[in-house]
Amino acid sequence: MEWHKFIIKENQNFQLNSLRSKIRDDLSHPMREYKPIIEDNVYKGFRGKDAELLKPAILQIDSNIIDALSIIENYDLDFIAVCDENEFLGIVTLNDIIKNIASIYSFKEPGSSIWFYCSDNKPVSSELIHSLELENIRVLTFSVDFIEDIHRYLNYIRINQLDPNQTLKTLERLGCDIKGYYPKGSRAMEFEKKLEHLSHFLSIE
Q1: How far is the C-alpha of 26 from the C-alpha of 179, rounded, in Å?
Q2: Which of 198 and 71 is assigned the larger pLDDT?
Q3: Alpha-carbon distance 205 to 179, whole Å?
Q4: Within a 10 A sphere around the Cβ of 173, how many other Cβ atoms?
Q5: CA–CA distances in Å: residue 122 to residues 30, 99, 116, 141, 155
Q6: What is the DSSP string of 153-193?
Q7: Tens digit of pLDDT for each residue in 170-181?
Q8: CATH number of 108-189
Q9: Backbone angles phi, psi at 162, to 5 degrees
Q10: How far apart, in Å, do the first and last CA atoms of the chain sit?
Q11: Which of 47, 97, 131, 199 has the fewest CB atoms within 10 Å, measured from its CB?
């Protein structure tokens, strides 16, 4: 997955701020040093200079970037350990996710845009994106709007394919309600051909 290249793999000390202090922009908050504790290649946590063993949530290597963002935001640190089961692979920092990954997952990249409702009336999930990735469809970025008058989440995704037809079929198979897409792609062209053929047939009659 794209975010794997941002994993810091060296077993080293990490100088990291408190996530909450970054949100407050509190420059008086001191930097803390943490070292990953690995025993028999198994991740045990991070230990600070005060000997406190810190074990925040683990991000599994097969997770989606959505999982990384949602997990890391729930903890008072700006990094998360990446593991394969219990094997420590490195860390990924919130800074890298925001600054680097955000530049990749951008609407500026060529592709198609689709907006739709999920069958369970929930925002775009990592499970849905994983289902798309299994069919070699890469989600470049996504956003969600809550439509208050109908109490539904309208999801927007940008995919790496110039023709959205394959993704439209997959989303429909997953029970999604397609509200629109751009560009037209092969689906719209097929529809226009059928409409043209029907119009020609009716004109003959």
Answers
A1: 43
A2: 71
A3: 34
A4: 10
A5: 39, 27, 11, 17, 9
A6: EEEEEEES-SS-HHHHHHHHHTT-EEEEEES-HHHHHHHHH
A7: 999 999 999 888
A8: 3.30.70.260
A9: -70, -30
A10: 56
A11: 199
Distances (CA, A) of 15 to 31, 32, 68, 88, 100: 6, 6, 20, 18, 19
Give me 15's structure tokens. Answer: 């100088």
2-102 CATH: 3.10.580.10
- Residues 6 or more apart whose Cβ sits within 8 Å of residue 141: 105, 106, 107, 157, 158
| CA–CA dist 145, 152 (Å, integer) | 8
Angstrom distance (rounded) from CA 157 to CA 181: 10
The residue with tokens 């040093």 is 33
Which residue shows structure tokens 């059928």?
194
The identity of residue 41, as a single letter, is N
| Location of structure tokens 């094997």 | 87
Q: What is the pLDDT of residues 149-169, one digit of tens each?
A: 888 988 989 898 989 999 999
Is there a shared CATH topology between the 2-102 domain and the 108-189 domain? no
Query: Is residue 135 classed as helix, strand or coil in its secondary structure?
Result: coil
| Domain range summary for the chain, segments of one domain joined by + | 2-102, 108-189
**In whole angstroms, what is the distance from residue 171 CA to residue 179 CA?**
11
